Amino acid sequence: MYTIRIGGVPEHFNLPWHLAIEDRSFSKENITLKWRDYPGGTGAMCEALRKSDIDIAIILTEGIIKDIIADNPCKIVQAYIQSPLIWGIHVAETSNYTNYSQLKNTTAAISRYGSGSHLMAYVHAQNQGWPTSDLTFKVVKNLDGAVEALTHGKADYFMWERFTTKPLVDNKTFRRLTDCPTPWPCFVVAVREEVLASKKEQVKTILDIINTTTSDFKSIPSIDKTLAHRYNQKLEDIQKWLTHTEWSQSQMETQILSEVQNQLYSLDIIDKKLSPEEFIVTL
After folding, report:
1. Under 8 Å CB-to-CB from 168, ≥6 apart: which residues?
2. Model confidence at 265, in pLDDT bands (50, 70, 90)?
3. CB-count burial class (<10 Å; 0-12, 13-18, 19+) for 113
4. Cα(first)–Cα(last) distance of the chain, in Å?
C-alpha cells in the first residue's frame, strides 16, 4: 500500500473526499489516503506542505499561488472547485457596525498571514477604494478564535466562507454585513514536488477517483440532507450552496493564473509574477 497524506478545511466542499475514503475507493487501488482537517485554512496548509506534514492540499487558489511564488515547492495538479468562493463579511452581533462601508480603518480578524481571510481583506479593501496600506490585522487561527476576538472587541470584522459561518449568524453570534466573492475559481489540488517525483502514478489515480466522485456528486440521492447533517447546516442553506457550487475535473487555465497574479501584484501581496509552468503540472 502507498500512504499519501492529504489536508483540507473541515467544510462541505470536501465531502466528496470523505465519501471516497469511506467507500474504500482509494484502498482498492492500493492507496491509503490519510485525511487531516485544517480548521486554520490555507495558511496552515501552506505551512504543512512546507514541513512535509501532508503531501496534498485542497487549498485556496490565491493562497497557494502566493506561497509557490514564496518558494513553497509544490505544484497545482488540478482545479477542484470551479466556482468562486462566497466570503461573508461578519461582525459581532453586538457590534455598532451596520454597513461594510463603515469598516475602513478597522481591524480584520484573520486565521493567519497568507490565509484566504488575510488576502480577501485586501480584495475587499480594493473593491471599496480604500488604501490597502492602512489595513490592520489580528491573527485568530480559526473560526473559534474569530468568535472570541469579535465578541470581546479584539477585532472588528472577519471574512470566512459564507455557509460555514451561517450557523453563527443564525444563533446571533455574528452578523453578516455583505458577501465578497472571489474573482476566480476558489479551490485547487496542490501536491509537493517531492511526492510528484516519487508517487506520480498514485497521485494520478487519486485524481481519477475524486473526479469520478465529484462528477456524480450532486446526483447522489439526498446529498443535500447528508451535507446538512454532517456540517450542521440548514437544509435550505445547503440547497442554495449546491446551486452555485461547481466542481472541476480539469487543470486550471493559465489565464486564471495570470489574473490571480495580477490581482495579488496590484495589492502588493506578491512582489513578482511567475510563468504558468512554475505553478502547474498536468498528470
Report:
1. 90, 143, 147, 174
2. very high
3. exposed
4. 21
State the pLDDT confidence band at 267, using cuts at 50, 70 and 90: confident
